[in-house]
Specification:
It is a single chain. About 35% of the residues lie in helices and about 20% in strands. It is of the alpha/beta class. It has one domain (about 5-215): TIM Barrel (Alpha-Beta Barrel). The radius of gyration is 16 Å and the shape is globular. The protein starts with a strand and ends with a helix.
């Protein structure tokens, strides 16, 4: 049964606390927070202050996903702001192994994210230092994109590598999940599924979250 992590990026930015509480009441397992710098991706979102404000309204973990260049500059700031899980993109740094170790030393779950066009093999030497891997189902930067079908095969290949090496690494799928494809995503090996616009635009987000979890 997959965990469900609604992405606050699809929420109302003028009501972030209320939106967080609404997703928590609807049964979310964690709140996914996409941090974008306008450099690594062509969009800007928010920084540590917003994470701290969301933290004050959340009783569930904050899954903070850094889509920023050289994330090592800001790891401590996001940890101090209240992240419980912290991930960054393998494409955005030359210090991936050091970053993973630094996150773990602070007591958080450490994750690597990978873009759709990046070969999975770039991750393999770093899996020992990961608690989870985010496989992007869309090109990072904007919510509401359609799921890239090849993501399913990528998750299956990653799951096979994790099993082959007997590792305890979770797979998180971020981007394009909806009621129609969530069963496919879960069957491919996703332990956590990020739900963006699908959950936030629904008048009954609890039904969306329940449907995601039951697949």
């Amino acid at each position: 049964m997959a965990k469900v992590a609604p992405s606050i990026l699809s929420g109302d930015f003028s009501r972030m606390g209320e939106e967080t509480e609404r997703m928590e009441r609807a049964g979310a397992d964690m709140i996914h927070c996409d941090v974008m710098d306008g450099v690594f991706v062509p969009n800007l979102t928010f920084g540590p202050k917003m994470i701290a404000d969301i933290r004050s309204h959340a009783n569930i973990p904050l899954d903070v996903h850094l889509m920023i260049e050289r994330p090592e500059r800001y790891l401590d700031k996001f940890i101090d702001a209240g992240a419980d899980r912290l991930s960054f993109h393998i494409e955005a740094t030359a210090a991936a192994a050091d970053n993973l170790a630094a996150i773990r030393r602070r007591g958080l779950k450490a994750g690597l994210a990978i873009c759709p066009e990046t070969p999975l093999e770039r991750l393999y030497d770093l899996l020992d230092g990961c608690d989870f891997v985010i496989v992007m189902g869309v090109h990072p930067g904007f919510s509401g994109q359609k799921y890239i079908p090849e993501t399913t095969a990528r998750m299956k290949a990653l799951r096979a590598e994790i099993i082959r090496r007997n590792l305890s690494v979770e797979i998180e799928m971020d981007g394009g999940a909806n009621i129609e494809n969530v069963a496919e995503i879960a069957a491919a090996g996703a332990d956590t599924i990020v739900s963006g616009s699908c959950a936030f635009t629904s008048p009954e987000p609890e039904k969306v979250i329940a449907a995601f979890r039951c697949n």
